[in-house]
Amino acid sequence: MWGADVSDDGVYHLYVAVALQQALYGLGWAAGARLLPASRPAMRAWAAFSLCTAAGLGLAVMRPLLPPWVGVVGANVFLLLPFVLVWRAVELFFGLPPHRGWQGALALGLLATLVYLGPAPEQSTTRAWVMLLAIGGIIGAAALRSHGPMRHEFGPVVAWVVHLPGLLAALVLLAVLAGVAASPHRHLQDLASLDLALPLGYGMLLACNGIHLAYGGMQLTRLARRLLHLSRHDGLTGLLNRRAMHDVLQDEWQRHLRLGSGFALLMLDLDHFKQVNDRWGHHAGDLALVHTARLLDRQLRPTDRASRHGGEEFLLLLPGVDGLTALQVAERLRQQLQADPVALDDGMRLGLTVSIGVAGLAPGDDGVAALLRRADAALYQAKADGRNQVSLAPDPPPPPQGPPNRQRLAQGSRRARADEF
């Protein structure tokens, strides 16, 4: 470090182990940056931090074999400046506004300070203060910068657990600083002894492992969430896909069985969509689908759910709504889509119309599949009536007198599990 003794076997092996560990972390982050383009800037910053720290520790353990400017000043530069990259990596990871000016000024100031102090033995105490205060301050700044976004994305428990290693590392650094402050006139060989080298090595081990494990775990969590989102959402429109909507409908049916709550389905189909693709191209068709999805997202309530049912068809679930109310919602959606043409890339405006079939849950429906069939039949009726229409499916005949309620609930539950669409 600033000139601390690492010749002791225990300290030497500790520093070598941390250096090798940092190098492996750096290679892992670099490989991840190649595989995950969306996270590449942050991962590159973590990789640079790890590899530079490994280089600094390597220079520290080889100090007796190197010129003082390389073994002392070079090691300190490679150990201290990478912590500025931690600050930057945190901002990149959470998409925060960058503080490049502050970070650049800090890096240049620290570099100038280390060069000014040089490798002279009589400056060892000052170098110790600079190194420990800078590392502790940067870790604290990064923690403060990331705590709010981390709480928002991963929860308060994760935020505090992630910052605990940094807090412990800061306590280690404060303990070292307290020892230096208590004996400012000690001889260099006492100050640069195992008393400083060993706790600093353990502090580096704790801080670096905490950083890598925490942010690596959060990166994996993001990736898992992203994969789950992709498995349940349409890649073009961002709406639920058919499989996810099936699960939502089954949950809504179970809620109906428990509470007696109603719901309605809207089946939408863009009129003459094939002609849009044939005349304007598939890109224009994609724009039309995205435009429709965004309009639905704006118009629906937070409790409503929308999915891309397939091709140019969309399926909407309106909880707590009867057929007549759903008919009014469908008419409003039809009018909104007709009044809001799609803006194509060349500046032209493409008008769209939609046919909508509406079905409200009725006593004669014995499951989700029955309600879907009625909504689909109403959609075909709207098309048969000339398109750009809204059609309400008639209620099915009421069921015959059934068994007692408990048995009927059990039968309804079995039917719901068997429903597919």
Automatic annotation (TrEMBL):
Biased segments, Pro residues type: 394-403
InterPro entries, sorted: Diguanylate_Cyclase, GGDEF_dom, Nucleotide_cyclase, Rev_trsase/Diguanyl_cyclase
Catalytic activity: 2 GTP = 3',3'-c-di-GMP + 2 diphosphate
PROSITE patterns: GGDEF (PS50887)
Chain segments carrying region Disordered: 385-421
Chain ranges passing through the membrane: 12-33, 45-63, 69-90, 102-120, 126-145, 157-180, 200-218
Domain of life: Bacteria
EC nos: 2.7.7.65
A Pfam family assignment: GGDEF
Keywords: Membrane, Transmembrane, Transmembrane helix
Signal peptide span: none
Domain GGDEF: 261-395
Listed GO MF terms: diguanylate cyclase activity
Protein name (record): diguanylate cyclase
Biological source species: Ideonella livida
Lineage of the organism: Bacteria, Pseudomonadati, Pseudomonadota, Betaproteobacteria, Burkholderiales
